[in-house]
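This protein record is not my work; I was only asked to verify it. Take the sequence as given and treat only the tokens as open to question. I have pasted the whole thing underneath without changing anything:
***
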Amino acid sequence: MAGYRDLLRTPGVGRMIAAQLTARFPSGMASLAILLHVEQQTGSYGSAGLVLAATSVGQAVSGPVTSRWMGVWGMRRVLTLTAAVCTLAVLALGLLPLNLAGYMAFGLIAGLSTPPIQSAVRTIYPKLVNSSQLTPLFSLDASLQEIIWILAPVVITLVSTQVGTTEGLILVAIVLVLGCGWFILSPEVGRVRIPRSRRALGRVLLKPPVALATAIGFLVIGACSAVEVGVVATFEHGSLQAGVVLGIFACGSLVGGLSFGHIPIGPWAMARRLIIVTVGLALTMVMLNAYWLGGALFLAGLGIAPALAVLFAITTASVKFSETAEAFGWAGTGQLIGAAAGSAIAGFLVDGTGGPQGAYLAAVLFAIVGVMVSVIFVRALPDLRDRDPSPFPDTEPVAVTPS
């Protein structure tokens, strides 16, 4: 922990972490807020699912595009525009009398305009710390983001069920404005300018580490989404237990990230961390008792944040600085598609098997494939134990302007 304290004392690091977590907090609230509101207005979970699907499609499509725009028009301009449009779309969902087509349209707009905060902050990080601090910083970032998934669903559920679903969406919009405003106005965002990439959109995926980070991110988040379906199906009549068990899963990830974040990243780091995830997920199939599931998922969680930290590090270390934002945009798209695939496959298996074991089986299979990909393509993963994990410099100088 002393290393993390030293890291947080580095000028700008603590502010960037706090600002980006606040700006991303709505991402942990929006899906549930939209689900509850659309279901209440239409009386159909199917309709709510379609609106969420439209939102997810928008996010998956926009991630690499808006991230790349930051190198053309600058981070502040792109973040301000997307935050404004996304806020208006969320307010429209909550305040306008819409039919299903209208909800889907504004859900799509909200997804397309989701501010690329993750791409921005992970592009800024290498400019804030020295090379020896970058891997621990990515691990700290991956760990602390679990706070979003622990607190945000609880907050939005309380507001939407005790006050109203419209008020829930208004809260999402307020936090979006305040969080993005804080992040956009941070001095570090003004100091760092991403050079314009000279390569075509998508060419960065031809780099094996970036393609692997995108694919493995798909599998890791797919496993996590399948777990969520399994836990909800297990405690269908006890949502409090479901929330507690999922909170324990997130706490395991938080503990794992903080505990293992200092370990240097070699080619086998991803496989080792995913083995921990796989073992923990496999244990969920033994017994559906809340205490057993909590323990198994805590063990699985110990590998989640460390695995994500590896994804962030190998992505950064494999591209030019001008390509980092787009690379993280593709990684985010892979994770969004993984979330959708994991939820859908787990849902079908729950219906087909008549029980939640099908969802846990889906989670285990996603994790096993992740281990297999990490082992089969280990030669394509960079060895960062004795290497600067910062992005490669561009051939032209990077302009740094005062904020």
